[in-house]
Model the fold of this input.
Amino acid sequence: MNALKDILVISIEQAVAAPFCTMRLAESGARIIKIERKDGDFARYYDQIESSDSSYFIWLNQGKESLVLDLRDKSDQNLLKNLLLKADIFVLNLAPESLIKLCLEPNSLAEKFPNLIICNISGYSNKTDVYNEKAYDLLIQAESGIIGVSGVENSPGRIGISIVDIGTGMTAHAAILNALIKRNNTKKGEVINIAMFDVAAEWMTVPFLQSAFAGIDTIPAGLRHPTIAPYEAHVTKDKKIIIIAVQNEREWKSFCEVTLNKKELAENSNFCSNVQRVKNRDKLNYIIDEVVNHLSAADFKLKLKAGNIAHAEVRSTSDLNFHSGFRDHEIFGSNGMAIRAPVSAFANSSTNSKVRAPNLGEHTKSIKTEFSTD
Done:
C-alpha cells in the first residue's frame, strides 16, 4: 500500500494517539519525520520488551525517522520552518500552552503555510473552557462516561487497552485522508482539530440518547449486553466462560429449540420478545444456566453451532497467539531485532518488512543536512 508514497509528514508526537495516526500514514507509504525532545517520546520508556523498546513504541513507530530538536533554539526553529515548507501534513499532540510557547498555534501556522494540512490532537476541544486541561486515555474514559458504563454494577472498570487514544488516532487519520482529497481539488491545506473527549463522547451516543430521551441510565453490565437478551456470558461445567448472542426472534426460536432443547420456551410470554427477555433476564438466565452448567464448553459450542447461534469464549491475552483467526507478522525494534506481533488490519503485512522503530535522534544529522538552507 503506497498510495501516500510522495507525502511528507512532520509530527511532533508522543504517547499513542498521534503516533497511531502517523503509523497509519506510514503504512500507506508516507514519509514520517518524528520530532522528539532530547529525552525522547516518553512512550519509549513505558515498559521494555525483548527488543529493548517499549511495547507501545515498537508498535507505533515502525519506519519513522527520529529527529531531535530543541524548539526553543533559533536554528532548530528555522529547520522546522524548512521542514514545514516542504511538508504535506503536520501532526501535533502538544499541550495547548506548549503550542503557544513554541509559536505552533495551528491557525497561525496555517497563515504561514497555506498548503499544509495541520492536524492538532488535544484532550478537549479548543471550543470549550476545558481546552487547557490535561488529558490522558484513562482520564478521558472516566470523564466521557465510558468507565461509567463498563465493568460491573457498583464496580466500574477501565477498558483494558488505550481505546480512546487509539480511536482518536483512527479519527485523525481518517480526517487527514479526507483533507488530502479536498486539497487535490482546492490546492489549499486546512486545520483539523481532533479532541479525545469528542471522540469518546460520540461513542457514548447510544447510552446518551437512551438516558436523555427514554430515561434509561446504562449501568455497568459486566459480560452482558444492557438492552439485548440473551446476549451475555454463561459458565460451562469445565469453568469456561462462553458468551452467546441472540439478535432476533428467528435466532431466539432456534436457540430454544436446537441449543437448549426447550421448544416451549420460545413461546413463553415472559420471553416472547427482546423487551420481555431483558425485563425477565434473571429468570431466563436461570433456565439457560440449568442447561449450560451441565455441559462442557466443547459440547455447548456444538449445540450453539447446531442452532446457528453466535458465540465466543472469553480468552486470556496468552490465548490470542493460538487462536485460529490470529495472524501475525514481524516488526523490528530499534536494535534491529525482529519480534512477532499482530498483523496490521489496515495495511498489507509486507508493507513494513524492511523498516524498524528508530533510535532516538537517529536521523537528526541526515535530516538537518537535507533540509538546511545554509
